[in-house]
UniProtKB/TrEMBL annotation:
This is SsuA/THI5-like domain-containing protein. InterPro entries: NMT1/THI5 (IPR027939), SsuA/THI5 (IPR015168). SUPFAM superfamilies: Periplasmic binding protein-like II. It comes from the Archaea.
């Protein structure tokens, strides 16, 4: 059955379908708000599909000729994430003031879903927005296997990622600690509940 995102979610909540594809941090909180129950989530990474999905992308030439702009943007991006992690209530209020059509309760519920995928234990240990070279290699290997692209045609990890612009960020930005009544234990709990240890 081919349905748009909202229709898939509506069908799931109504019991018309048993499962659906979606983004954990988008569908998860809406389903929880509408049903009063946390949905059962399937993490593809537990079944061999463990790849990077997000990152900041920049042309190499631009990065080489304008490193101060790339560094400034990266710093601002990581600081924004750190603020969201540390101040979930205030962050949601800011977002809701900017986008009044959003439902505050849903956005507050979304925090634990976002944290479970964006700030898992390994990220908390290594630092926010720090690439893991092994996962970059695994991502490339997955693309090789899934699309039957010869390895020699695929880029090397060092050709497509760098930690150069995050390595000197302050500790409090790389390793934020939730506030507003939340703790990092809440993040770990959400991660374990959603995905297992």
């Amino acid at each position: 059955m081919s349905l748009k995102s909202e229709a898939r979610r509506t069908a799931l909540v109504a019991g018309q379908v048993d499962y659906t594809l979606g983004s954990i941090h988008v569908e998860g909180p809406v389903i929880e708000r509408e049903t009063g129950k946390e949905p059962n989530l399937l993490r593809w990474g537990k079944y061999g599909f463990n790849i990077y999905q997000n990152g900041l992308v920049c042309r190499k030439k631009y990065m080489e000729t304008h490193p101060e702009i790339v560094e400034g943007f990266t710093r601002a991006y990581v600081r924004g994430w750190s603020f969201y992690i540390e101040n979930p209530v205030e962050a949601v209020n800011i977002i809701a003031n900017m986008y009044p059509e959003l439902d505050k309760e849903t956005e507050q519920l979304a925090w634990k879903y976002v944290m479970s995928i964006r700030y898992p234990p390994k990220v908390a240990k290594d630092g926010k927005c720090v690439f893991d070279p092994e996962l970059v290699e695994e991502t490339i290997d997955t693309i090789h296997e899934a699309f039957d692209i010869p390895m020699e045609e695929l880029p090397k990890p060092e050709d497509i990622y760098t930690n150069e612009f995050v390595k000197d960020l302050p500790e409090e930005i790389l390793h934020p600690e939730p506030k507003d009544g939340y703790t990092y234990e809440d993040v770990l709990k959400a991660y374990e509940e959603f995905f297992g240890s």
